[in-house]
Design goal:
Blueprint lengths: L6 E6 L2 H10 L3 E5 L14 H13 L3 E6 L5 H4 L2 H10 L4 E4 L2 H10 L5 E3 L8 H9 L4 E2 L7 H8 L4 E8 L11 H6 L20 E5 L1 E3 L4 H6 L4 E4 L6 H20 L7 H9 L2 E2 L2 E2 L12 E3 L4 E2 L15 E9 L6 E5 L4 E5 L5 E2 L7 H8 L7 E10 L3 E2 L2 H21 L25 E5 L3 H8 L5 E5 H6 L11 E5 L13 H14 L4 E4 L2 H8 L6 E4 L8 H10 L3 E2 L7 H7 L5 E6 L2 E5 L3 H6 L9 E5 L5 E7 L4 E5 L4 E2 L4 H7 L3 E5 L5 H14 L25
Parallel strand pairs: 1-2, 1-10, 2-3, 3-4, 4-5, 5-6, 6-7, 7-10, 9-12, 15-19, 21-22, 21-33, 22-23, 23-24, 24-25, 25-26, 27-33
Antiparallel strand pairs: 7-9, 8-13, 11-14, 15-16, 16-17, 18-20, 27-32, 28-31, 29-30, 30-31
Helix pairs in contact: 1-10, 5-18, 6-17, 10-11, 14-22, 16-17
Length: about 700
């Protein structure tokens, strides 16, 4: 018999959905305000609606978690305190956060507000859990790509673990997707994903995952140590919320009561009927990837058109008991109580001497149990009444109202906070950076490109971890260049080349041999591993270790990051405001749009480890080709932009931000192209690192001019 208590967490994109979740048996609800949530297109909540919802939830011993799980720009960090102050006072139970800068600010300004790391933070290994512990995070929603075994390891760290059990799934590791951002200016990191993964590529829907449904796996999930079961769906309606929450409530309760666990086919059908995309799957809990997880030929939702759920617009009434004493010459006293709390108040109502009609215990009881519209239902009412007294029904109603309001206020006030928050003024660091010609760092993905770069006069060479290991480059003649290793985009606790153990051993061996100058990192796991290693060289935060704002930049710097990469989703004005002098600026190359545990090559042709390191291509509806790199030893796909970034000729930008280094990122370029592009750069390079000509003909300037929503 499994007695462990788990939380059922339901979505609410609107107030009606919140009521549906409460009535369906959710233990907690997650929702967003009209700003800074990862579902900006949902109806979301006003401040007044949120405060009302907090009171309704807390009266019923339920919790509300607020999503502030987007990346924040500097000017938005300044708004964070005012945004959260009232919900905080009203007893907000937690904030779901992606941005490390926001986590740092919340810990400082609302020190007792629980912080939950969003799945957008892309935590994939126990090292990431340990990093977030250092930051004061209470709960983590790990990446959806993890197996039950990996999640079990995370749970054993003592961190609260929350996992998705139902709903839509992203093709990319959440938080590592830039496709919507660069294709249409709508950033998934800002809650405005346009879902380009649901479009066709090569005439099929290779990037469109089926929806998750794990109703048959509830006992396994509980045994793995998951503490909160999360339903996806803040963009869906109240009928979906009610039906899905109700079914999972039923089977979580069944599991925890013990006995045989078996799902009624009608309940499974009820779940599937409330939206499904191309069928359902059990996610990654038992599969690393696979064609069966992909819709391939059917990307759209289907659902029943009938409104089959009876959904109330009001939260279910709270059962209470009442005891009332009406005594001659004294104020009437009422006690309202449940199994754990009792509130007793004097009502100010003094009975009169009866002239004609006299109060009886039955007549008083009949009036006091009329609790419609109060949010309570009176299950038991005991009355003690002296004889010969009279009160009109209006005064009896006043007694009942006084008692129920006092009990309500008590339930609510138990969760309210006193004002122990403190708003601190942030002093923006000013780093004086003298204008010097920036260093030139070059990243490659294959040996042919590496050999081409070795023949050129560049400063730094960035080699992917897999390429470095697979070709035994520890013994390779790197001709005295400053060599960096780009650690894996994703680090897992499973037995692959990108496992925590393998990466840790690699880092320590490199430190012992002194063969690399530093590491480029894309995740929290790498930073934690390096912090605990023997490495004492450079640590460079790459574009997926987001330092959108000064808070994040400073936290990473304090944690050991030597230099950050200029954020790719900020425009010139936002970069100026953020302050990025002395960082690394990517000036050329295809940016990685998606990092995925699923594999396009596997979906199209079947798994072939010999394809590792090679590029395949998919074509979008505009006939543009997107390169896809298979890193088979890591079981990771990288989808690159169809158009190359090129901003080396942005001379005004260079003069303002004074980059310490510029980076060229080569993907599908032939060796001769590598030499030509770098040769053209050096031929036209100015002292500030910019050029007076463009390096290639067809290119994008990324978000430098337009930015993202």
């Amino acid at each position: 018999m499994n007695k462990k208590t788990v939380e059922l967490l339901a979505p609410a994109g609107s107030y009606d959905c919140f009521i549906a979740a409460v009535n369906a048996g959710a233990d907690a609800v997650y929702l967003g305000l009209d700003r800074f949530g990862a579902r900006a297109s949902a109806a979301n909540f006003s401040q007044d609606e949120l405060k009302r919802a907090l009171d309704i939830a807390h009266m019923r011993d339920k919790k509300i978690y607020l999503t502030v799980n987007t990346l924040f720009k500097d000017r938005e960090i300044d708004e964070l305190y005012d945004l959260l102050y009232e919900p905080y006072i009203y007893g907000l139970d937690g904030a779901i956060v992606q941005d490390i800068g926001v986590m740092s600010a919340l810990r400082r300004e609302f020190c007792d507000l629980p912080i939950h790391a969003s799945t957008q933070a892309a935590v994939t290994a126990t090292a990431g859990i340990e990093f977030l512990k250092d930051l004061g995070v209470k709960r983590v929603v790990p990446a959806r790509e993890l197996s039950l075994e990996e999640i079990g390891r995370m749970a054993r760290t003592g961190m609260e673990i929350e996992c998705f059990i139902h709903g839509s799934m992203c093709y990319c590791y959440s938080g590592k997707c830039l496709m919507s951002s660069f294709i249409g200016g709508r950033s998934g990191n800002r809650g405005r994903c346009a879902q380009p993964c649901r479009l066709s590529y090569d005439g099929h829907y290779y990037l469109s995952l089926k929806d998750m449904c794990v109703i048959d796996m509830i006992p396994e999930l509980i045994d793995a140590g998951i503490g909160s079961f999360k339903i996806e769906g803040r963009m869906k309606d109240s009928e979906y919320v009610y039906a899905v929450t109700s079914v999972y409530r039923k089977y979580i309760d069944l599991c925890q009561r013990g006995g045989k666990y078996e799902v009624d086919p009608s309940d499974r059908a009820r779940l599937i009927s409330k939206y499904t995309r191309g069928g359902n799957c059990e996610g990654y809990y038992h599969l690393h990837n696979g064609r069966d997880m992909i819709t391939v030929d059917c990307p759209s939702y289907s659902s029943t058109s009938d409104k089959t759920e009876e959904i109330s617009k009001e939260a279910y009434p709270i059962p209470v008991k009442i005891k009332c004493d009406i005594v001659t010459g004294k104020e009437s006293v009422i006690s309202v109580y449940d199994d754990s709390r009792t509130i007793t108040v004097s009502t100010g109502v003094i009975p009169e001497t009866a002239r004609n009609c006299m109060l009886t215990e039955d007549s008083v009881r009949k009036q006091l149990i009329k609790s419609g519209g109060t949010g309570f239902t009176v299950k038991e009412c005991r009355v003690s009444c002296d004889t010969g007294l009279f009160l009109p029904n209006g005064r009896l109603n006043e007694i009942r109202r006084t008692g129920l309001e006092a009990f309500r206020d008590h339930l609510i006030s138990e969760c309210h906070r006193t004002d122990c928050s403190h708003k601190l003024e942030r002093s923006k660091p000013v780093d004086e950076v003298s204008q010097v010609t920036p260093l030139v760092n070059v990243s490659v993905i294959n040996m042919e490109q590496l050999d081409a770069v070795l023949s050129l006069d560049t400063d730094g060479l960035i080699i992917p971890y897999g390429l470095f290991c697979d070709n035994n480059l520890k013994e390779y003649d790197l001709k005295q260049k400053k060599v960096y290793v780009a650690l894996p985009y994703v680090i897992r606790d499973e037995n692959r080349s990108n496992s925590t153990q393998s990466v840790t051993e690699f880092v320590n061996d490199c430190a012992k041999r002194g063969i690399v100058s530093g590491f480029y990192i894309s995740n929290l796991e790498s930073l934690k591993i390096l912090r605990g290693s023997d490495h004492c060289g450079d640590i460079v935060a790459d574009i997926h270790l987001y330092a959108y704002n000064t808070e994040a930049y400073e936290y990473f710097k304090d944690y050991g990051v030597s230099i950050s990469t200029v954020p790719t989703e900020l425009n010139e004005r936002e970069l100026d405001h953020r302050g990025i002098m002395g960082e690394e600026l990517i000036v050329y190359g295809r940016l990685p749009m998606m990092i995925s545990a699923n594999c396009i090559y596997n979906t199209k042709f079947g798994c072939n480890p010999e394809n590792s390191g090679h590029l395949t291509y998919i074509e979008d509806r505009k006939k543009e080709s997107l390169p896809v790199e298979c890193r088979c030893s890591e079981c990771t796909n990288i989808i690159y932009n169809c158009v190359k970034l090129c901003i080396a000729d942005e001379r005004d930008l260079f003069k303002r931000i004074k980059p310490a280094s510029v980076r060229f990122c080569f993907t599908d370029e032939k060796p001769e192209e590598v030499r030509n592009i770098l040769g053209r750069y050096y031929e036209h390079r100015q002292t500030d690192g910019s050029t007076d000509v463009s390096l290639i003909e067809k290119y994008t300037r990324g978000h430098l001019k337009r930015g993202v929503e």
